[in-house]
Amino acid sequence: MAQTRILPPADNAYQYPLLIKQLLLSGPRYNPDQEIVYANRSKYTYSDLVERIHRLANALTDAGVQPGDTVAVMDWDTPRYLECFFAIPMIGAILHTVNVRLSPEQIVYTMNHAEDDVVLVHDDFLPILESVRDEIKTVKTYIQLTDDASAKDTSLDSTGEYEALLGKAATSFDFPDFDENSVATTFYTTGTTGNPKGVYFSHRQLVLHTLGMTGSLSANDEMPLLRSSSVYMPVTPMFHVHAWGVPYAATLMGIKQVYPGRYEPELLVDLLKTHNVTFSHCVPTIMQMMMATESIKTADLSNWHVLIGGSALTKGLCDAGAKLGIRMYTGYGMSETCPLLSTTHLKPEDLELPLEQQTSLRVKTGIAVPMVEIEIVDPSGNPVPHDGEAKGEVVARAPWLTQSYFKEKAKGEELWEGGWLHTGDVASMEPDNTLTIKDRIKDVIKTGGEWLSSLDLENLISQHPAVAGAAVVGVPDEKWGERPFALVTLKPGEDASLEDIQKHLQQFVDKGDINKWAIPEQMNFVDDIPKTSVGKINKKLIRDQLK
Amino acid sequence: MAQTRILPPADNAYQYPLLIKQLLLSGPRYNPDQEIVYANRSKYTYSDLVERIHRLANALTDAGVQPGDTVAVMDWDTPRYLECFFAIPMIGAILHTVNVRLSPEQIVYTMNHAEDDVVLVHDDFLPILESVRDEIKTVKTYIQLTDDASAKDTSLDSTGEYEALLGKAATSFDFPDFDENSVATTFYTTGTTGNPKGVYFSHRQLVLHTLGMTGSLSANDEMPLLRSSSVYMPVTPMFHVHAWGVPYAATLMGIKQVYPGRYEPELLVDLLKTHNVTFSHCVPTIMQMMMATESIKTADLSNWHVLIGGSALTKGLCDAGAKLGIRMYTGYGMSETCPLLSTTHLKPEDLELPLEQQTSLRVKTGIAVPMVEIEIVDPSGNPVPHDGEAKGEVVARAPWLTQSYFKEKAKGEELWEGGWLHTGDVASMEPDNTLTIKDRIKDVIKTGGEWLSSLDLENLISQHPAVAGAAVVGVPDEKWGERPFALVTLKPGEDASLEDIQKHLQQFVDKGDINKWAIPEQMNFVDDIPKTSVGKINKKLIRDQLK
Q1: Does residue B299 lie within any of the structural domains?
Q2: Where in this chain does the record put each AMP-binding enzyme C-terminal domain (chains A, B) (predicted)?
Q3: Does residue B418 lie within any of the structural domains?
Q4: Distance from the B337 Cα atom to the nearest Cα atom in chain A, whole angstroms
Q5: Based on the domain organization, do A196 and A314 belong to the same domain?
Q6: Are B271 and B418 in a shared domain?
């Protein structure tokens, strides 16, 4: 290591570890009366938020929580959850955001694996825990979350109801300083094989992710996504990568926040309209459900900016959004990356185009955000050319990537092979540094010695006017190794045949966008495409079903 | 310290120290062809910037620079200087930005104190160094900076001319990783007494300052000051607190940058017009000079946003700017604070007021930016009320404050007394968290047992239509302890008497803004008010002269 010069601070200078408590300094200072809304139920101010975080810290401490303990939360997307985002790590404990969409068996697996000490659980999820009660190993007590302050009877060992405990708790907590590398949060990422794996993020990492996100999203040239007049509503769950970390960034900036609770499409649209929401993040599936509601037809959405992630933003969805005035952007990242790696980056000249013509730019995976190193590499780890054609695995370095999987040393080392985090995504990179994800490494269809992107094919099939959605997987083929097989869902009242879709795809062959051999010979028209708990197409299941 | 949980990374995970090289990742990626302009001389792209930084690193290494060495720069505000901002710390050396406005004796003092190894010096400043040549103790060699590639003959030991050395250097340098607490930059702050004191900032601190600044300035509700369509031109020198750190933030965002070279008012206005500059930072003195030019009368300045610092933004200056369409903001900080502590923060409803009516909000010191802890305290270190009236010393904590003074342990401990950095500024804080600096502690006029702010009085005197500027100091008084004494400069062709100014001040007494005893009985009308090398009123000199 280079012999640089490091000077000691003055004897009594304040050492400044990066801690989540610092993310709570500026928002309430910028705007103490700014609102935080819980659906159509209740609202309070940033000043209230601060007091409630102090009360929660006291309530948790009263319930026995110590620094280093793990506190799990099972809740809908609520201001309560936001309070947990701050209070739990701020006392030095670890916030475990439980994926409530997992099976009871998977949930109890993650709780035992994370060694949860205390669980905050909404009454709606009590039956899940009660059903696996005897398998829960480390939990000492439960705190019940309710929307109407009347907690249900439960066979679990309940310390009491959240609001009642907060009401009794002292209003001030002296949040300590500690090592910035202390674990702040953990949650489990589910692949299609094996047990869920626990990723974790330190205080330092979450502070840096928040600062990096605030700068990169605020500097958006179309509209700064996070500024004092913004109104934020998450539409990806808070249990999943801290709702992409945006609640931290929104709180840092002191902007209005709307928490929807449950993801009911009519409710979400109603909240958009009532609060003039300007910024959300969303997965394509939920976006499609919102766009299919009656009420969206009468909404003015020209000021709604949506970062789309989870799975690829298709041209079809982006076009349909543009017709409603919605500005969509691609956001790219994953559970392991905290998650932000890249976003759509529109240049001033791009924005002069009509919104419909910007679609092809918005569906690209975008340009890596500040502080992120990104590369595409071949199987030996060597970079492939940035020519928009060559495909490689996306690898990354950044100050906010999970450093391993909890208690899974070997898998952590595999993730970090060669000192870069391996995303498992295959992408090309254009000379202007724009990344385009082509597929998951395991979903790429290897046909006739070439790599065929299942995502590209899904995207093109989805552009057929009768098609609602498509999933393409590789199936074994004696001659070609693999061939693409498509599952297609149609829009209500629409019809199309295999030949119609093939004819639709032929035009892209004619334009040189794809090769002739990319057109699938096999296609099933289905009512539903199997999805994972986080709304991604479950290709493992599809492949298994096709066997 | 709380027993939190710290998990080790995977064996081969990439440890991510925060280093200045990471600030250079995103700008060239967002916009490789974006321009960096040197006055009306030359321009190049971000891609060129990256290559030149690599070449400079090689040229410096060829000249013998090692990690841990100190490399001083004496230049005008140029893209060369920007290259030094990156290349010198990126090789692990320390950038010493020399204040070229100091006396030759002070300059040689700072060079010896910082133990400079190599000096990059513009030919315009050669005579300064030649005049003190025999007193320079540690410098091994000089690199000459010129604007026309023909270096002057010099008695100094010159390695060669900058452009020639870059031309010969290899185009790629492998910038190493090292401890993020390594010193990256140093410069000297001049008080009115004693020798200049060296402050210093680590890689970690500069990265965090940049990220904090990018978020807080981008989230400005009026216009994000740093976004891809912004055009940035510094109007406070790069040797002074890294031009407030904005060159790092602008480079991170990939925005167009215009470096003016010398601060000639007509040139600055010409550059504003030619490049449609949207964002600058400036001290009041230079702003007044620019506003006094002929050419500004024909400029469209409605898109120019200026952060004013160094000394207070007066209502008079802000009003005059508003008449030209210029949007001014107060920025607050100091050499010791890297510098950003607070800025004007306008709420959406404030912006609905006509620009002229926003002045009273813009002249306030503003609200502390994200990640900054700020307090106002009495002489015992206890917080005083945030009622807009009570005055206390501003103390701060943040991740980017100098940790001491170089080789001045005792002064460093005084700066950090009680674990907070003491700014030496006296301020009040309103219930809405808005800070208003009232004075320097040493400039407060103690009269009849009360604290009278010299800045308040200067501000009110400056609002007299005939007055160009004012300086107020305390002079000893047998009865009252001290009484205010005013130095006043008048606008060209204007006239005013002591009685006129007193009558003007009486109206503020009548309105209850100030007390009757605040009106000075003593006033000198002068041609010039003594200023320090960085353009602040030199009150020490005024007090000495009045003795």
Answers
A1: yes
A2: 457-536
A3: yes
A4: 13
A5: no
A6: yes
pLDDT digits (tens, 9 = 90+) for B52-101: 999 999 999 999 999 999 999 999 999 999 999 999 999 999 999 999 99
List the one residue out of B319, B362, B314 whose CA is nearest residue B342.
B362
CA distance B369 to chain A (A): 6
User: In B400-466, at which residue ranges do the beta strands (DSSP E only) sit?
Assistant: 421-429, 435-440, 445-447, 450-452
Low-confidence ranges of chain A (pLDDT < 70): 1-2, 191-193, 449, 534
Residues of chain B neighbouring A227 (CB-CB closer than 8 A): 218-221, 224
* Residue B506 host element (H or E): helix B498-510
**Residue A336: active-site member:** yes
Does A97 share its domain with A148?
A: yes
Active site members of B: 189, 336, 446, 451
| Chain B residues inside the 8 Å CB shell of A412 | 9-10, 13
- State the alpha helices, DSSP H only, in A337-408: 348-351, 359-362
**Which of B211, B345, B397 comes nearest A30 by C-beta?**
B345
**Burial of A13 (C-beta count, 10 Å sphere; 0-12/13-18/19+):** buried
A33 assigned to some structural domain: no
Torsion region of B488: left, alpha or beta (phi above 0 gives left; psi -120 to 50 gives alpha): beta
Average pLDDT value for residue range B17-31: 96
Query: In the listed set A388, A409, A440, which residue is the last one of a domain according to the structure?
Result: A440
Give me the mean pLDDT over the B395-411 stretch: 96
| pLDDT over 90 at B215, yes or no | no
Domain count within chain A:
3
pLDDT in tens, B332-387: 999 999 999 999 988 888 888 988 889 999 999 999 999 999 999 988 889 999 99
Residue A517 a catalytic site member = no
Q: Are residues B458 and B499 in the same domain?
A: yes
B373 min Cα distance to partner chain A (Å): 7
Here the CATH number for the domain that contains residue A63 is 3.40.50.12780
The CA distance from B141 to the nearest CA of chain A, in Å, is 20
Nearest-angstrom CA–CA distance, B319 and B87: 41
Q: What is the CATH number of the domain that holds B522?
A: 3.30.300.30
Closest chain A CA to residue B430 = A29
Same domain, B268 and B405: yes
Cα separation, A446 vs A480, whole angstroms: 8
- Among residues A168, A451, A494, A521, which one is catalytic? A451
Between chains, do B6 and A219 touch, taking CB under 8 Å as contact?
Answer: no
pTM: 0.90
- The closest alpha carbon to B290, from B312, B278, B273, belongs to B273
Note whether B514 and B530 are same-domain residues: yes
Neighbours of B524 (CB within 10 A): 13
For B140-177, write each residue's pLDDT tens digit. Answer: 999 999 998 789 999 999 999 999 999 999 999 999 99
CB nearest B29 (choices: A94, A229, A368): A368
If asked whether residues B450 and B434 sit together in one domain, one would say: no
What 3-state class would DSSP assign to B151?
Answer: coil
Q: Note whether B404 contacts A18, CB cutoff 8 Å.
A: no
Q: Spell out where B334-460 has E strands.
A: 340-343, 367-368, 373-377, 392-397, 421-429, 435-440, 445-447, 450-452
Domain ranges, residue B158 = 20-26+38-202
Could you tell me if residue B239 is inside a domain?
A: no
* Mean pLDDT across chain A: 93
* ipTM of this predicted structure: 0.90
Residues A290 and A189 in one domain: no
pLDDT digits (tens, 9 = 90+) for A164-207: 999 999 999 999 999 999 999 999 998 666 789 999 999 999 99
Query: CA nearest A345 in B: which residue?
Result: B30
- Which residues fall within 8 angstroms of residue A290, CB to CB, at 6 or more apart? A235, A265, A268, A269, A282, A296
Best mutation target among A3, A4, A228 (most B Cβ atoms within 10 Å) is: A4
- A228:B221 CB<8 A: yes
